C-alpha cells in the first residue's frame, strides 16, 4: 500500500475534504427535489342498499412516479371473490367499483400508495343495508325427555336482524330451561313433557319483510326413575316398604326383582310380599313393594325395572335387615393380675349395624349373694382391661355386644381367680393377755377378711427391747380362726419391750400393727400346773391339778380354760389358792373337750398346763396330751416307779442349773440375751423389720417356712410351741410334758448339759 508520501507533491489532504463536501451538497439538492406520495381522501355514498352500485377513486396529489397502488378490506388484501373492479386511470389515479353491492360487501376499504421515498393510505367505510335472510332455517325437533336440543334459527341482514322465539300464543322467556343463543337458535335443556308444542322463530331489522317460521317440538318421555340407587334399613320382624317413583309416557310397566331373580321365583318372599302402583301427582306412578316380617335373608339388592314403548329404566334398592349382634365368642382371660385382668373376645356378626359398645358383666363367686357389676367398653374393641378387682378372688364374667338395634345374647361365662397380694392391713386388736418375768402372752385378731388378699399362712411376731432400737426379732405363728394367742418366752426380767404383729400369705406380709409396749415382771411366776381328769360322766368332767416346784407357795388363784372340739375357749376363775380340783358341769354328751389350767401370783401367771382332751361319757376318758397322747391318770404302778426316781434326780439338776443361770444373768445383765425361738416355725436371725411393700416385693431377706418334711405338726394347745434348733446351742429335745422328759431320762440316762452364759434355757 502506498502512503501519502508516495503521491505527487501537489496533492494535499485538504483537497479530499473539499471534494466530499461538494458531493454531499449535490446529493442533498437532488433529494430535495423528490416528493413522498400523498393521497386525497375518498368516501362511499351513504344509504346503499343491496343491488345498487358503489365507486370510489384513489388519487395522489403529491409525489413522483412510479407509484404502486394496493386495495384492502378490513385490513386484508381485497379478495377477488367480492366481485370488485379495480382500474388504473392514469399514473396518479386508481378506481374501485362494486356492482352490485351486497351485505357482505360492508366493511372498511383502504387504498395504499407508495414510491421509493415512502407511502400513504386512506380508508373509507362501506355500509350496505338489506332485509333478513335465512342462513339456517328452523325445522321440527324431537327431544328425549331430560335431554338437550338445539332448534336452529340463523339469519343474516344489515343491520343485524333481531331474532325472537315464541311459543304459539305465548312469549317465551330466555331464563330457566328455555333460552335463545346469540346466533338465534332455541336451546332446550332438561326437556320435560310440558315443553312440548309449537314454536315460532321471527327475524326483522326494519328493512324489508320480517322472516317467520314455525316448528313442532315433540318431547319423548321414556320411563325415568327419580333415584337410581338407595339403601333402606329395616329391623328384623318389622315390615319393609320399597318405593320406586317412575315418570314417563303411559302405559308404564314395573317389575320387581331380588338379586336379579323375579319375586315369583322366590317362594318364601313371594308369600310375604305384595306390589302396588299409585298415581303420582307430577305425572307418573309410584310403585311399592311391601315385605312383611322382614327376615335376615330378605336383605339384598332389589331391582325396580320400569318400561314403556320409548325405553326402560331401573332403580337399585339395597335392603339391609338390622338385628342385634351375635354373642361374642372365644371369650378368654389373656392376662391376670391381683386387681385387674385383660379380657378378650371375638366378633362374629354385628347384625348389619356397627357395634357401638360391649358390656362386661362380672361378679364374685365367693359372695353369699353375688352382686353383679357392669363395665361398658365403647366402640368395637375386642379386648378390655377389667380393673378394681379384689385379689385372690374367684370371679365369673360374660360379655354382651350392643348396636343401635339392641343387645346380643350373653357369651359363655368364664371363671377366673385373681392373683394374690400381700395382706393390705395389719392384724387387729393387739393385746397383752399376761406378762411374766420371762414370758408374755400376746393376743390378736386377723385382719378383716377383705384385707387378706389371699389365704393367710400365719403371722410374724416381732419384739425388741425398748432401749435397743435395733431391728425386731421375729417368730412365726400359725394361722388360726378367731383370736390368736401366742406365748413369747425367754425374755429378760423387769425389762421394757415393744412388739408388733404382721400377717403373711404366699406373696408377702402385711404392714406392721401398731407397737404394743409391755414390761416383764421382776419375780418368777408359779410353775405350770399338772392337770389330770379324775372322773367323767355324760355332762361333767372332774379335774384335778398340782403345782410342784419353787413359787408354788405364792399362788393366789387359778384360771381354768376349756372348749368344745372346734369351739371357742371359755374361762373359769378360781380365787382360792388352795383349791386343786374343779368339776365342769352342763357339758354336752359324748363330746370331746380340751382343758388347761393357769396358776396366778403377784409376779404373773404361770405357763399354761398341758392341754388335755377328754370325752364326756359314763366311763373315765384317758387323759391325752395334744401331741403325745400320754396320760397321767392311767399310769400303772410300774410307770409310777419309773417316774418317781427320775423326778428326784431331776430336781437336783434343776437346782444346780438355776444357780448357774442366776450367776450368768447377773454378769450379763447389761447386754440383751440371745433369744431362743419358740414359735411354730423357725426364725431367720437376719430378718429385718420393714413395712409392707407392693406385691411381689418381699421382706429382705425373705423368711421361708420350713418344708412340711422338716416341720412338726403344730400342737393343739394355744400356748404350745414347736421344737426349734439354734446353731449356737447344744441340740436338746423339748418335751411336751414333764412325764415325757422323766420317762426319757429313765430310758436313756444322760449327763447334765453345760449351760452357756449367754443363753436362757426355755421352760418346758
UniProtKB/TrEMBL annotation:
Q: Which UniProt keywords apply?
A: Disulfide bond, Immunoglobulin domain, Membrane, Repeat, Transmembrane, Transmembrane helix
TM stretches of this protein: 641-666
Query: Which regions are flagged for Polar residues bias?
Result: 408-421
Keyword NADP among UniProt keywords: no
Q: Which InterPro entries match?
A: FN3_dom (IPR003961), FN3_sf (IPR036116), Ig-like_dom (IPR007110), Ig-like_dom_sf (IPR036179), Ig-like_fold (IPR013783), Ig_I-set (IPR013098), Ig_sub (IPR003599), Ig_sub2 (IPR003598)
| Domain Fibronectin type-III, residue spans | 324-421, 426-523, 526-619
- SUPFAM superfamilies on file: Fibronectin type III, Immunoglobulin
Q: Which residues form the Ig-like domain?
A: 37-129, 132-218, 222-334
Any one Gene Ontology biological process term?
A: anatomical structure morphogenesis
Where are the stretches annotated Disordered? 408-429, 695-730
Highest taxon of source: Eukaryota
Tell me one Pfam family matched here: I-set
What is the protein name for this chain? SDscam-r1
Annotated organism of origin: Limulus polyphemus (Atlantic horseshoe crab)
Amino acid at each position: 500500500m502506498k502512503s501519502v508520501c508516495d503521491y505527487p507533491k501537489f496533492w494535499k489532504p485538504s483537497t479530499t475534504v473539499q471534494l466530499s463536501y461538494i458531493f454531499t451538497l449535490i446529493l442533498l439538492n437532488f433529494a430535495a427535489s423528490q416528493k413522498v406520495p400523498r393521497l386525497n381522501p375518498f368516501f362511499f355514498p351513504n344509504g346503499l342498499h343491496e343491488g345498487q352500485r358503489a365507486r370510489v377513486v384513489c388519487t395522489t396529489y403529491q409525489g413522483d412516479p412510479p407509484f404502486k397502488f394496493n386495495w384492502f378490506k378490513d385490513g386484508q388484501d381485497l379478495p377477488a371473490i367480492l366481485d370488485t373492479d379495480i382500474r388504473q386511470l392514469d399514473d396518479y389515479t386508481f378506481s374501485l367499483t362494486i356492482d352490485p353491492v351486497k351485505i357482505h360487501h360492508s366493511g372498511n376499504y383502504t387504498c395504499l400508495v407508495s414510491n421509493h421515498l415512502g407511502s400513504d393510505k386512506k380508508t373509507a367505510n362501506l355500509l350496505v343495508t338489506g332485509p333478513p335472510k335465512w342462513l339456517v332455517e328452523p325445522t321440527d325437533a324431537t327431544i328425549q325427555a331430560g335431554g338437550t336440543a338445539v332448534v336452529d334459527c340463523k339469519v343474516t341482514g344489515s343491520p343485524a336482524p333481531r331474532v325472537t322465539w315464541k311459543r304459539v300464543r305465548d312469549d317465551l322467556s330466555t331464563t330457566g330451561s328455555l333460552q335463545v343463543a346469540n346466533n338465534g337458535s332455541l336451546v332446550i335443556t332438561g326437556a320435560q313433557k310440558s315443553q312440548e308444542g309449537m314454536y315460532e322463530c321471527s327475524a326483522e331489522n326494519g328493512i324489508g319483510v320480517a322472516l317467520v317460521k314455525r316448528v313442532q317440538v315433540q318431547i319423548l318421555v321414556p320411563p325415568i326413575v327419580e333415584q337410581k340407587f338407595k339403601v333402606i334399613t329395616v329391623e328384623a320382624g318389622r315390615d319393609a316398604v320399597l318405593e320406586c317413583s317412575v315418570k314417563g309416557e303411559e302405559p308404564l310397566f314395573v317389575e320387581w326383582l331380588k338379586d336379579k331373580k323375579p319375586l315369583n321365583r322366590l317362594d318364601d318372599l313371594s308369600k310375604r310380599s305384595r306390589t302396588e302402583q299409585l298415581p303420582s301427582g307430577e305425572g307418573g306412578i309410584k310403585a311399592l313393594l311391601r315385605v312383611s316380617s322382614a327376615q335376615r335373608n330378605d336383605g339384598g339388592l332389589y331391582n325396580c325395572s320400569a318400561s314403556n314403548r320409548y325405553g326402560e329404566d331401573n332403580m337399585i334398592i339395597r335392603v339391609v335387615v338390622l338385628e342385634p349382634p351375635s354373642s361374642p365368642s372365644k371369650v378368654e382371660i389373656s392376662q391376670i393380675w391381683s386387681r385387674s385382668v385383660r379380657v378378650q373376645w371375638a366378633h362374629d356378626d354385628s347384625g348389619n349395624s356397627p357395634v357401638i359398645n360391649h358390656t362386661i358383666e362380672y361378679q364374685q363367686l365367693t359372695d353369699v349373694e353375688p352382686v353383679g357389676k357392669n363395665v361398658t367398653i365403647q366402640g368395637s374393641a375386642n379386648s378390655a382391661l377389667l380393673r378394681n378387682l379384689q385379689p385372690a378372688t374367684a370371679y365369673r364374667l360374660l360379655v354382651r355386644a350392643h348396636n343401635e338395634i339392641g343387645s346380643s345374647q350373653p357369651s359363655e361365662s368364664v371363671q377366673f381367680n385373681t392373683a394374690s397380694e400381700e395382706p393390705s392391713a395389719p392384724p387387729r386388736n393387739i393385746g397383752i393377755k399376761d406378762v411374766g418375768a420371762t414370758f408374755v402372752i400376746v393376743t390378736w385378731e386377723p385382719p378383716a377378711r377383705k384385707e387378706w388378699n389371699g389365704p393367710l399362712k400365719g403371722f410374724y411376731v416381732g419384739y425388741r427391747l425398748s432401749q435397743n432400737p435395733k431391728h425386731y426379732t421375729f417368730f412365726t405363728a400359725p394361722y388360726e380362726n378367731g383370736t390368736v394367742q401366742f406365748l413369747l418366752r425367754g425374755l429378760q426380767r423387769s425389762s421394757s419391750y415393744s412388739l408388733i404383729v404382721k400377717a403373711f400369705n404366699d406373696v408377702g406380709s402385711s404392714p406392721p400393727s401398731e407397737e404394743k409396749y409391755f414390761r416383764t415382771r421382776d419375780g418368777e411366776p408359779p410353775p405350770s400346773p399338772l392337770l389330770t381328769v379324775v372322773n367323767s360322766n355324760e355332762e361333767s368332767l372332774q379335774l384335778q391339778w398340782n403345782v410342784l416346784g419353787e413359787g408354788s407357795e405364792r399362788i393366789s388363784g387359778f384360771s381354768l380354760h376349756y372348749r368344745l372340739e372346734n369351739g371357742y375357749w371359755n374361762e373359769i376363775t378360781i380365787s382360792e389358792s388352795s383349791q386343786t380340783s374343779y368339776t365342769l358341769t352342763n357339758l354336752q354328751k359324748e363330746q370331746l373337750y380340751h382343758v388347761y389350767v393357769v396358776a396366778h401370783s403377784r409376779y404373773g401367771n404361770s405357763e399354761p398346763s398341758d392341754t388335755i382332751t377328754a370325752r364326756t361319757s359314763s366311763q373315765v376318758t384317758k387323759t391325752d396330751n395334744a401331741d403325745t397322747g400320754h396320760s397321767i391318770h392311767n399310769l400303772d404302778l410300774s410307770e409310777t416307779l419309773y417316774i418317781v426316781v427320775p423326778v428326784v434326780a431331776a430336781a437336783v439338776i434343776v437346782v444346780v442349773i438355776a444357780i448357774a443361770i442366776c450367776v450368768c444373768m447377773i454378769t450379763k445383765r447389761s447386754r440383751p440375751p440371745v433369744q431362743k425361738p419358740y414359735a411354730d416355725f423357725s426364725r431367720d436371725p437376719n430378718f429385718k423389720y420393714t413395712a409392707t411393700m407392693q406385691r411381689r416385693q418381699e421382706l429382705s431377706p425373705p423368711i421361708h417356712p420350713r418344708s412340711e418334711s422338716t416341720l412338726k405338726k403344730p400342737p393343739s394347745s394355744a400356748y404350745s410351741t414347736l421344737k426349734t434348733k439354734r446353731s449356737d446351742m447344744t441340740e436338746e429335745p423339748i418335751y411336751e410334758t414333764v412325764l415325757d422328759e422323766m420317762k426319757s431320762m429313765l430310758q436313756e440316762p444322760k449327763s447334765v448339759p453345760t449351760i452357756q452364759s449367754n443363753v436362757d434355757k426355755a421352760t418346758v
